[in-house]
Amino acid sequence: MAKKRVSIKDIAKALGVSITTVSFIINGKAREQRISDEVSKKVKDYIKEVGYKPSHVAQSLRLGKSKIIVFMAEDISNQFFSSIARFIEEKAYRNGYKIIYCSTDNDVGKAKELISTFKMRNVDGFIITPTPDLEDVIKDLMEEEFPVVLFDRWLPDVDCSHVIVENKKSAFEGTDHLIKEGVKRPAFISLESDQTQMIDRETGFREAIQQSGVKGLELKLKFHNLAESGPYQELFEFFSKNRDIDGVFFATNYLAFEGLQALDSLGRNIPKDVKVVSFDDHYFFGLFKPKITAIEQPLETISEKLMETILNHIEELDKGYVSRKIILPNKLNIREST
């Protein structure tokens, strides 16, 4: 049986004080209302003891909507996230909302701190690319009745709305394309990650090579944020040791950028010696010689679905949270590298 949520009314009744008094203390207005330190301490101690969490619905009704939505990405400077951010900004503005942008750098500590800060500012909702180990924080947000939508990846243990793409299917199609173009020794370059989108891309690669019977290689690299040097050296060494690799599937475009540099340094000709496919298309891939085959995510559609979902949650705030799960198709853009 679900544990009953503690309300302000319950706290007031248990301590023998008025609901108004409890409300003033919770909202930091005790001194302004001349409530004694003794009463304030008694209420705060009890709140901590029973684990009370204020309802966002109640706050919204009391203070009004802030008309602000938080957009929390892994790295806002990354072209994928910045493009979605730009589309979302336009759609939010048309609906009377403003967006606050921030980057987590895939750091759970930073993500928790940012979410805590924005909760106190009574923002209307959160669009989040979740970091590892953020499940409890997302559950808390939902329990406090904040509208939340995840994107790029989802959390299997949390029944939360999300907008994602067909990662496994697209990775299978990209790998299958390499094999059909004659690749006998494909390599999959990815990140050390338990995140759903990376697991799905790895699964798609593995299923394609198992189905074809070729022998594949895999390399998983640590996540690098913008302030750190990229994995060029690790990729250079990997390709140096495995000269029989004749096809590469890069799980993200920034890994492809580093990998293409490494292959060029080794004098490996694309596509004669090595054929290349990357997840996350980028304008750079159309400028590179030869042009790089890549999987394009539907950025504008992702943005539309994110805004549509978060605005629906905000409008239905008093009806309770019902999750929406949206999965969108990608497009394989075949170019000269294959």
From TrEMBL:
Keywords: DNA-binding, Transcription, Transcription regulation. PROSITE patterns: HTH_LACI_2. Pfam families: LacI, Peripla_BP_3. GO terms for molecular function: DNA-binding transcription factor activity; transcription cis-regulatory region binding. Residues 6-63 form the HTH lacI-type domain. InterPro entries: HTH_LacI, LacI/GalR-like_sensor. It comes from the Bacteria. This is LacI family transcriptional regulator. The lineage of its organism: Bacteria, Pseudomonadati, Bacteroidota, Cytophagia, Cytophagales.
